Automatic annotation (TrEMBL), chains A, B:
First and last residue of the signal peptide: none
Record's protein name: Homoserine O-succinyltransferase
Domain AB hydrolase-1, chain residue ranges per copy: 51-358
Native organism: Marinobacterium aestuarii
Organismal lineage: Bacteria, Pseudomonadati, Pseudomonadota, Gammaproteobacteria, Oceanospirillales
UniProt keywords, alphabetically: Acyltransferase, Amino-acid biosynthesis, Cytoplasm, Methionine biosynthesis, Transferase
InterPro entries: AB_hydrolase_1, AB_hydrolase_fold, HAT_MetX-like
UniProt record similarity statement: Belongs to the AB hydrolase superfamily. MetX family.
Molecular-function annotations in GO: homoserine O-acetyltransferase activity; homoserine O-succinyltransferase activity
Physiological role: Transfers a succinyl group from succinyl-CoA to L-homoserine, forming succinyl-L-homoserine.
Compartmental location: Cytoplasm
Pathway info: Amino-acid biosynthesis; L-methionine biosynthesis via de novo pathway; O-succinyl-L-homoserine from L-homoserine: step 1/1
Length: 388, 388
């Protein structure tokens, strides 16, 4: 926890709740009659409302991007390394918006929140939402905030899919699209890992077909296993070797089932911590959103056609040892954008940290990202620039 | 099941049981006062007893390498593609020996077999055995069969670790060592995947601390999850893409938790089949043997020093898309052997099938392996050759 707030932090922040009563039609055919989004913002919206940045979160992220909720907060928001005064996403220049996506478990309408029709948690009755559904709900949030056009929509991993979808669905409403460590669709291997996670959760006896809230139960084992599998795929083989190697907990083998190697204790710890903090139904829903995402599917399997209507400038960033969303997947996005004649630049960052790299302030990554944000700032219409 | 036995099959075969009453000292410090090994052999041992081949099995393998146990057998032994009259491991030339390793669940002494002291299944009281322990027990089996020196010891994956250990522990007792899709030690990532499997099994409420036999219970969910994770790591990303891609079960999304993609159904099926056929305590034990294997550890972390005493010729084979036991790991073995001045040749086979490739009769693999077995045959001492 911070004894004092660092000078380059956005400081103490509080989430806001936004209620929406206009029904939202979802890809699954159902609709949400009303819903609520939990939102955090940092920095100041300029008079033109033209300096706003939307940051979309990944599987386990939320609205709390940066800063602290209290002086007792053990750690800052999940992208504090990139967001703050003078940081890459500079809150002296930009008005930054983060939200917990629909179906999340950090305050927005989702499985762990009350269904207005019953007063009890939605549980498994919360509809399965997709990346386009999220983008639609984010567009309504932009309307509410009076933001007609984002200076940039930015996201890593599942967040990058949302950024890409913004460019497809609302081409007039963003000037820059920054897609980090993402893919235009998951591979079979990725779906397979997600399915292991789902099986671990749904077969946990504490899952009760998703109605565990009423039973005062939590499918902790399932969530722990899901997170352990996930965590392995977020790190690289090389990165794990560097960080853990074959280091033993006690220096020698004890020939029993207790953790013998440091990597085992680490994963158990990560898994257990996660299982105490995250909602199982949300995990299922987020992995389904990942699996289903495939913007090319409705354009004859052509990603080039899917992005043809986009108007913004694109930046695509990948990391050399990311095998969950490998550079190859990023290059597919870049190739489609080039094929469609879009303005795109691409950077592949050398890093041993695997998929996790997108959350780490690697110097070269921050340089590239910073140059990109300089472009975003330069493209803020001049009347707004002058008014600052 | 075979309506008729193929001409190049070893045909109908039966396992034999070998009882050993000389205590076996184990690496963990415990000993087995007596134990039993389940064994299958194919072909004929020559007068010199010099044409014997030992095939060591991997994590889920056993003694049943080739042929059928009955005309109702749904499929042949696990390496039937490589073993038989006229096949790569030619049973017209060689006497082939397969065994279920100690701690296995297919008849040899192990967790699901009676502890002679109590009459009840050993369960978790069966000692954790290591690759060197297995090799020691295999050497005693060789003694019993009157085989002073193997023409070759061959193994893939965990089996390859046993072959390597033979060359280290019993340099006089093998002429050729064939190490396929293996590693001289697991990486942190490999250990991590094994730990997910162990957590899935040991946290299954049906596991009962390993004493599930007495409860008429089976930790099926844990075993299923373990196998699903394992299976993903045995295939390659490319191979999965080729085989499954994003093919849907029903042609379109149904927006529920049932399997939507072919890869999901496939993994569930594989996992469920495995959980009905394999013993959970054995799975735990086999993964520990994998994790612990590290012959360099007792030679100042130098694999070159570990293999310095070896006398046999080595063949090391890897597969391009194998990421569980990558070509890089095989090259570490090759480099150590070269450094130690040993006779070694190495082949990296181009294949999309990942780790599973070692079980598949890929033409180039079979050519390379066949040439190698020609060498093994040529090195059978001439008196024996003449007597054939």
């Amino acid at each position: 926890m911070p004894t004092s707030i660092p000078a380059d932090s956005v400081g103490l922040v509080q989430p806001q709740q936004f209620q929406f009563d206009q029904p939202l039609e979802l890809a699954c055919g159902r609709q949400l009659d009303s819903y609520s989004l939990t939102v955090e913002t940092y920095g100041t919206l300029n008079a033109d409302r033209s300096n706003a940045i939307l940051v979309c979160h990944a599987l386990s992220g939320n609205h709390h991007l940066a800063g602290y909720h209290s002086m007792d907060d053990p750690k800052p928001g999940w992208w504090d390394s990139a967001i703050g005064p003078g940081k890459v996403i500079d809150t002296n220049r930009f008005f930054v918006v983060g939200l917990n996506n629909l179906g999340g478990c950090h305050g927005s309408s989702g499985p762990n929140q009350p269904n207005p029709e019953t007063g009890a948690p939605y549980g498994p009755d919360f509809p399965i939402v997709t990346v386009p559904d999220w983008v639609q709900s984010q567009a309504r949030l932009a309307d509410r905030l009076g933001i007609q056009q984002w200076a940039a929509v930015i996201g890593g991993s599942l967040g990058g899919m949302q950024a890409l979808q913004w460019a497809i669905d609302y081409p007039q409403r963003l000037r820059h699209c920054i897609i980090i460590a993402a893919a235009a669709r998951l591979s079979a291997q990725n779906i397979a890992f997600n399915e292991v996670a789902r099986q671990a959760i749904t077969r946990d006896p504490q899952f009760h077909d998703g109605h565990y809230y009423a039973k005062q139960a939590i499918p902790k084992t399932g969530l722990m296993l899901a997170r352990m599998v996930g965590h392995i795929t977020y790190l690289s083989d090389d990165g794990m070797r560097e960080k853990f190697g074959r280091d033993m907990k006690s220096g020698k083998l004890s020939f029993d089932l207790s953790p013998q190697f440091e990597i085992e204790s680490y994963l158990q710890y990560q898994g257990e911590r996660f299982s105490a903090a995250f909602d199982a139904n949300t995990y299922l829903l987020m992995t389904r959103a990942l699996d289903y995402y495939d913007p090319a599917a409705s354009f004859g399997d052509s990603l080039s056609e899917a992005v043809r209507g986009a108007q913004c400038k694109f930046k695509v960033i990948s990391f050399t040892t990311d095998w969950r969303f490998s550079p190859e997947r990023s290059r597919e996005i870049v190739d489609a954008l080039i094929d469609a004649g879009k303005a795109v630049s691409y950077a592949e960052i050398d890093s041993p940290q695997g998929h996790d790299a997108f959350l780490i302030p690697i110097p070269r990554y921050m340089e590239v990202f910073g140059a990109c944000m300089g472009q975003v700032a330069a493209d803020i219409p001049s009347s707004a620039q002058e008014s600052r």
